[in-house]
Amino acid sequence: xxxxxxxxxxxxxxxxxxxxxxxxxxxxxxxxxxxxxxxxxxxxxxxxxxxxxxxxxxxxxxxxxxxxxxxxxxxxxxxxxxxxxxxxxxxxxxxxxxxxxxxxxxxxxxxxxxxxxxxxxxxxxxxxxxxxxxxxxxxxxxxxxxxxxxxxxxxxxxxxxxxxxxxxxxxxxxxxxxxxxxxxxxxxxxxxxxxxxxxxxxxxxxxxxxxxxxxxxxxxxxxxxxxxxxxxxxxxxxxxxxxxxxxxxxxxxxxxxxxxxxxxxxxxxxxxxxxxxxxxxxxxxxxxxxxxxxxxxxxxxxxxxxxxxxxxxxxxxxxxxxxxxxxxxxxxxxxxxxxxxxxxxxxxxxxxxxxxxxxxxxxxxxxxxxxxxxxxxxxxxxxxxxxxxxxxxxxxxxxxxxxxxxxxxxxxxxxxxxxxxxxxxxxxxxxxxxxxxxxxxxxxxxxxxxxxxxxxxxxxxxxxxxx
Length: 467
Description:
By secondary structure, the protein is of the alpha/beta class. Helix content is 39%, strand content 24%. The strands form 2 sheets. The chain has an 8-stranded mixed sheet, with helices on both faces. An 8-stranded mixed sheet has the order 3-2-9-5-6-7-8-4. Helix 1 (2-48) runs antiparallel to helix 13. The two termini are 49 Å apart.
């Protein structure tokens, strides 16, 4: 009996060992296949890429694309024609009503000290009301926060409130610095209008010290019409100068004039294209960016880069002969900048149609060198994604962090969807963000193409390993 028992024991011990060995072999083979596939995405993007040419066309032939404008409508036509030319399985326009704010004539601003006039660069913030035809002039009160302004209360009556909290330059991630001070731009006017302030000027949202004022969205919240006051951004150079002169001359007078206005909402569209899934056609992976931009420039980094990279994801998958298991969609969202109507509409329609969205990826951080992805998902899926880091790190994709994925895909958030934000290097983004210098020549071709390949690689892994 002993020999039989011994043989049986050996068989039991060998079985799991053999299984583990096979699992390792299969895993190694899978990893090698994935590595080769990802390498091919990067090769094709760098040698046969289309994203840079598309970006040139969008920025130079369409230009700034503020929602509600004729240029935004031209961008919709541009996007629809491009997606159709790529022979995706389906291309369509998703109607959405969007805000229509117009800047009007170029803004003017100056302040005087001892009869010396200092002209300063400003720009109206999106959603602001105009000054009177003659402009607004008044003494200036400098504050660093909404809290400080609120505590001053009635002392702000009849004053121009100057919000001058700069970026925290100690923060490595400039998006964290942006998040630390953007509340003064968005809510400054609503905060001080109730105290009878004349107007608001806000330090531009950038760490760069230059003469380029940065526009951006602001909100009056629910305050009554009679408390709404003009709101403009001032360049960082001018902000520093004004702060210095205020310390020397607290009673100096500041003047500015802007002629912006809000018109009735306009009809527009999200532009959508998809490749149908071969196994799970009713499960969706979305990749996208926002088609609209501010009106001051061409919207190259914000968010022309994200638009063309997202389209390139589907093209690179097709070029590599990959037939995705899930339906892969590219969405060119309308109205991220001053309303988020496109993102909300897409999520609303997905819910009405009972769509099963399992993942979404957004590119809205510029066309710079790839660094990684921000992730919002379940704990189990997050562990799965971290396992892909060894496949992506050779391409500089080392930052896999939990965090905000993107404003347009945010409305899709649920317990069952994984959201991703493509994260390139952030150091230069806020030099151009919402300014007149966000133009095509500021985008590096290889950096843009590396980003497109990075996004394609993630979508490929999501399609292969998520059910």
